[in-house]
Prior knowledge:
158 residues; alpha+beta; CATH 3.30.1330.50; two-stranded antiparallel sheet
Amino acid sequence: MRVGLGFDSHRLVSGRRLVLCGVEIPHEKGLAGHSDADVALHALCDAILGAAGLPDLGTLFPDTDPRFRGAESTLFLRETLRLIKEKGLSVHQVDLVLVLSEPKIAPYRERLRENLSRLLEIPPDRVGLKAKTPEGLPLSAEEVIVAWAVAVLRESPS
Length: 158
Ligand code: MG
C-alpha cells in the first residue's frame, strides 16, 4: 500500500463555470484558473501522484502551457492514472474534503462521488467526499474553494 496527500485551492469568481469532481454545478460563480480549475480533481491528482512518487500536477501540467488552457481536469486525472499504471500501481481508495461556503454541496454530493468512482474505476464505497464550511478559518470563505485529498494505491496484480 502507498498513501499520498493532495491539497489545492482556487478563487471563486464571476464568469466561470463551476466544475467539481468533473461535474458542472450550477452556480453564479466558478473557479478561476488556467484549466477548468477543478480544485477537487487537482488535489486528488496530487494525492495519487504523491503516493506513486511521481512529480506533482503543477510540474506535469504547468499552467504556463497553452495546451492546458481551459482543459478539463479529467484529462489530468486520466493521465495521472496512466502514469501510475506504468509503475504497476492502481488506486484502491480515496477520501476528499472540500472546504467552501458556497454553493451547498449536499444536493450534489452523491453525483460527485459517483463520478469519482466512475473516473477512478473503483466502487463508490471506496470514495469518500465531505464538504465542510470554513467556520473560524482566516480565509475569505465566500471567495475560495479548498480541497484536500488522500489516496491509497496498491500494486496492480500483473
Ligand atoms: Mg489547481
